[in-house]
Design goal:
Blueprint: E1 11-12, H1 18-29, E2 45-51, H2 70-77, E3 80-82, E4 85-86, H3 92-101, H4 130-136, E5 140-146, E6 174-178, E7 190-191, E8 194-195, H5 228-232, H6 239-257, E9 261-266, H7 287-309, E10 316-322, H8 330-337, E11 362-365, E12 374-376, E13 380-381, H9 385-392, E14 395-396, H10 409-413, E15 423-426, E16 435-438, E17 441-444, H11 468-471, E18 478-479, E19 482-483, E20 491-494, H12 510-524
Helix pairs in contact: 6-7, 7-8
C-alpha cells in the first residue's frame, strides 16, 4: 500500500487555510497590498511534462526549422521560455532522481549513470519526493510514462511478483507506463505495480531471449523471456498514444472530482528507437528522429486540450522540459545530416558535461501568474521543481528535504532577470567529469566531455572529441577528433563570452578554476551525501 504518512520533516499546512497562506506568501514576496483584497483562488493543478532526450534545438521556439512543434511553441507563447535551464544530469536516470528528490544525483552514492532491468528502486522510500509534497497538500498524484528509477528492494527484480516498492511507495497514487526505457527490456507496460498482461502460466524467465522487437536498433535484447501476452501488450508504435490517452483520461477523472491534481508525465519520446505512430512517420524533414518529435508535440497538445476541455487550463501550472540534451545516436546523426541541429549551437551531446549534454528546453505556463510570451536567461534546473511545487502548494520543506532545490517562483512570476541560484552542479556520465556552474563560469574537472566516446560515424555511441569530425564543431582542446597532447587537464569556459565553448580559458583564469574545483570538492564531501 502507498504510505499515508511520510517520515519527513516538511510542514504541511491545513488545506482550509489556503487563503491565509496565499496572503502570507503575498506579504513574504512583497506583492502589492491590494492583492490581499482579492479572494484566493483554488490551489492550482500542476502538470510536469518531462520529455526524453529532447535537446535545446529540438523544438521550434528554440530555433528548430526541420521539425514543427506548434503545441510546444504555443505553450511558450502562453508562458515563459528559459534559455539557461539545465537538467542536473546529462543522463536519464540521475536526471529523474534529481527532479523527484530535489537532490543532486551524486548525493545518492555518486549516481551518474542509467540503471536497467535488474536494478532495485534507487530512491529511499523515507525520502521526501515531489509527489509527497503534492499529496500532503491534498493533491491527487499520478506518474504516467517512463519510470527508470528501479523496482523492488532487491536485485534482480522479480517481474512475476508485485513490483514493490515503486512509484506508489514514493507518493504517487497511481502509476502507468514503461518501467525502464523503450530501448531496453523487459518491453512491458506496468499498471501500478503489476505487469500488464502477465500470466502466471507463462512467467518471465531470466536468461531467455524475449520475443523479437519491431525496431531496428537491436541491442541488449537478452532479456527475461516468456510472458508472451505481456510482451504482446507492448507495441512500440503505440506507446506514445497509450501514454497520452492515459494522461488525458486521468486529467478528466480528477477534474470531475473538483480537487487539485499533480501529474508527472514522463514521455518515451524522443529516446531511441524512434517509433512514432504511423500517422507521424515521414512527416518531418529530419527523418525518424524528427517524426518522433512530431509525436511528442502531439502528446503535449493532447494534454493541453484535455485541460481546456475540462475547464481547468487557466488554473493549471504546466512545465515542459527534458531530462537531458539530444543524443548523437544513429537517428541523431541522420537528423544532423539533414540539417537539424539537436542541441542548436551548443557544444556536445547527451551524456556530456559540455552544454549540449544538459542545457535543455524549459517552458512554464500559469495564466495570471506567469507573463505570456516572455523569456528569461536565469540559471535554473529540474532539481528546483521540488522546492517550487512546495512553494506553490503552500508548504515548507524540512532541512533535509530537497537540499539542492531552490524556489523558482520569483523568476516565474516576477522579473525574468531575477537571479534564483548562484551555482549548479552538473553530473555527466563519467564521475571524473563532474562539473560546476557559477555565474558565467563553467568548470569541468577533466579533459573531454565525460560522455560517449565511440570514434566512427554511424556508431550508436558516437561522441566526445571524435564527434567533432562529424559535426564540424570547434574546441581549442581538440584537433582532428582527438584531445591535443598539450591540452589542459581541466576545462573552464566563460559562457557569457563563449556560449559554444570553443575556447578553454583555464590557463588565463587559474584562480577561478581553483576556487570552483574547491567548491566542487566541498559538495562531493558534504555529510548529507549518502555513504
Amino acid at each position: 500500500m502507498p504510505r499515508s504518512v511520510h517520515q519527513s520533516s516538511f510542514t504541511v499546512h491545513p488545506s482550509p487555510t489556503f487563503a491565509l497562506l496565499f496572503a502570507l506568501f503575498v506579504w513574504h514576496v512583497g506583492l502589492p497590498s491590494d492583492a490581499l483584497a482579492s479572494p484566493a483562488k483554488a490551489p492550482p493543478n500542476i502538470v510536469i511534462i518531462f520529455a526524453d532526450d529532447v535537446g535545446y534545438g529540438d523544438v521550434g521556439c528554440y530555433g528548430a526549422t526541420h521539425v514543427e512543434t506548434p503545441n510546444i511553441d504555443r505553450l511558450a507563447r502562453q508562458g515563459r521560455l528559459f534559455t539557461d535551464a539545465h537538467s542536473a544530469s546529462a543522463v536519464c536516470t540521475p536526471s529523474r532522481y534529481a527532479l523527484l528528490t530535489g537532490r543532486y544525483p551524486i548525493r545518492r552514492h555518486n549516481l551518474t549513470n542509467a540503471i536497467f532491468i535488474k536494478s532495485p528502486l534507487i530512491v529511499d522510500t523515507d525520502r521526501t519526493t515531489i509527489a509527497d509534497v503534492a499529496k500532503h497538500a491534498g493533491y491527487a498524484t499520478a506518474c504516467i510514462g517512463k519510470w527508470h528509477l528501479g523496482w523492488g528492494n532487491k536485485t534482480p527484480t522479480d517481474w512475476n511478483a508485485p513490483l514493490q516498492p515503486g512509484p506508489r511507495e514514493l507518493g504517487f497514487d497511481t502509476y502507468f507506463g514503461v518501467p525502464v526505457v523503450n530501448s531496453h527490456p523487459p518491453f512491458v507496460l506496468i499498471d501500478n505495480d503489476r505487469v500488464v498482461g502477465w500470466n502466471p502460466d507463462d512467467p518471465f524467465v531470466y536468461g531467455k531471449k524475449a520475443e523479437t522487437r519491431t525496431f531496428d536498433e537491436k541491442f541488449h535484447l537478452n532479456a527475461i523471456g516468456g510472458a508472451q501476452k505481456a510482451h504482446a501488450a507492448y507495441d512500440d508504435e503505440k506507446i506514445g498514444t497509450i501514454l497520452a490517452n492515459k494522461a488525458t483520461e486521468w486529467i478528466s477523472e480528477q477534474s470531475m472530482k473538483k480537487s487539485p491534481f499533480f501529474l508527472y508525465l514522463a514521455t518515451t519520446n524522443i529516446h531511441h528507437p524512434f517509433t512514432p505512430a504511423k500517422r507521424f512517420q515521414g512527416t518531418s524533414s529530419a527523418g525518424p528522429y524528427g517524426d518522433f518529435i512530431h509525436e511528442l508535440d502531439w502528446i503535449v497538445g493532447q494534454v493541453m486540450t484535455s485541460l481546456k476541455e475540462n475547464g481547468v487550463a487557466n488554473n493549471t501550472f504546466v512545465i515542459f522540459t527534458s531530462d537531458n540534451g539530444g543524443m548523437l545516436n544513429r537517428g541523431g546523426q541522420e537528423a544532423y545530416r539533414r540539417g537539424h541541429r539537436l542541441n542548436a549551437d551548443l557544444f556536445g551531446f547527451k551524456f556530456d558535461a559540455w552544454e549540449g549534454g544538459h542545457r535543455v528546453p524549459f517552458i512554464a505556463r500559469w495564466p495570471g501568474h506567469i507573463e505570456p510570451d516572455s523569456k528569461s536567461n536565469a540559471l535554473i534546473s529540474n532539481v528546483d521543481l521540488l522546492a517550487t511545487v512546495a512553494a506553490v502548494t503552500g508548504q515548507k520543506l524540512g532541512e533535509d528535504d530537497g537540499p539542492d532545490s531552490v524556489i523558482l517562483l520569483p523568476v516565474l512570476e516576477g522579473d525574468p532577470t531575477t537571479k534564483v541560484r548562484d551555482e549548479l552542479l552538473i553530473a555527466p556520465a563519467e564521475p571524473t567529469h563532474l562539473s560546476l556552474r557559477q555565474g558565467d563560469w563553467m568548470y569541468i574537472g577533466a579533459q573531454g566531455g565525460g560522455g560517449f566516446r565511440a570514434k566512427r560515424v554511424g556508431e550508436h555511441s558516437l561522441g566526445g572529441p571524435a564527434a567533432t569530425t562529424f559535426t564540424g564543431q570547434v574546441n581549442s582542446d581538440i584537433a582532428d577528433g582527438r584531445i591535443k597532447p598539450d591540452a589542459p587537464a581541466e576545462q573552464l569556459y566563460n559562457l557569457a563570452k563563449d556560449p559554444r565553448q570553443s575556447t578553454n580559458v583555464i590557463r588565463d583564469n587559474p584562480d577561478v578554476a581553483k576556487r570552483m574545483a574547491s567548491r566542487l570538492d566541498q559538495i562531493l564531501h558534504d555529510p548529507r551525501n549518502d555513504r
